[in-house]
Amino acid sequence: MSSFEEILFHTEERMEKAIEHLREEFASVRSGKASPELVANISVEAYGSPMRLRELAAITAPDAHLLVVQPWDPSVVDAVRKAIEEAKIGINPIVDSKLIRLPVPPLSEERRHELIRVVRKMAEEGRVALRGVRRHGLEEAKAFQKESEVSEDDLTRAEKEVQKLTDRFIAEVDRLLHTKEAELLKV
Questions:
Q1: CA of 75: how far to CAs of 36, 46, 48, 118, in Å?
Q2: CB neighbours of residue 26 within 10 Å
Q3: Do residues 81 and 92 make contact, with C-beta atoms less than 8 angstroms apart?
Q4: Tens of each residue's pLDDT in the chain, 187 residues
Q5: Could you tell me which residues are beta bridge partners of residue 96?
Q6: How many C-beta atoms lie closer than 10 Å to residue 183's C-beta?
Q7: How far apart are CA 179 and CA 84, in angstroms?
Q8: Inter-CA distances, 100 with 27, 50, 54, 122, 124, Å
Q9: 136/159 Cα distance (integer angstroms)
C-alpha cells in the first residue's frame, strides 16, 4: 500500500462487495411474490459441469405467483427440473415440454416468521463480514504507518475514516434488512 487513501479505497471496495453479496442472498430468499432471483443462482449439472440456472435459461415472472424457466437448450430441461427440486425452495416444478412452470404458493404466517429469522441471520453475517473488512483495513493502516514513518495523527484520521465507512455500510445492511422484512410480512 502506498497511502492511507488507497487503504480507504480498497476497504470501501471490499465493503461494497460484501453489501452486494448480501443483496444477492436476500434476493434468493423467497417472499410472497415470484422473483427470478429466487432460482437464478441454483446450480444445475449440465454439459458435464455445474452451471447457474441463469446461464442456461431465460427466467421470467409473468405474474406475482408464477415463474417460467425456459432453457435455451431443450436437452437440459430435465436437469433443470431436478436441480430446482433438489434446491428445496418449496416450489414444485411443472415441466411443460420445453419450459418449466414454477407456481409460487403464498407463504404461511409461520413460514414468513421463519424466513425473517433467516434474513436477520444473513444480515448479522453481513455485519460480521463488514467488521472483518474494517479490521483488515485498520491492520493495513497500522502496518503502513509503521513502515513509512507517518504521524500518529494521520493514523488516527485514517482509523476514523475506516470507522465512518463501516458505520455507513452497517446502516445499509440495516436498511436492506428492514426492506426485506417488510417484503416478507406483506401479504
A1: 21, 9, 13, 35
A2: 21
A3: no
A4: 458 889 999 999 999 999 999 998 888 777 767 778 888 888 888 888 898 988 889 999 888 888 899 999 888 888 988 898 888 777 888 888 888 998 888 778 888 888 899 899 999 999 999 999 999 999 998 888 888 877 888 889 989 999 999 999 999 999 999 999 988 887 6
A5: 99
A6: 17
A7: 26
A8: 20, 19, 14, 29, 35
A9: 11
Provide the 3-class DSSP secondary structure of residue 57.
Answer: strand
Helical ranges in 28-151 per DSSP H: 37-40, 53-56, 77-86, 109-148
Nearest 5 degrees, angle CA 12-CA 55-CA 39? 80
Predicted TM-score (pTM) of the model is: 0.73
Measured CA to CA in angstroms, residue 171 lies from 116, 154, 164 at distances of: 18, 26, 11
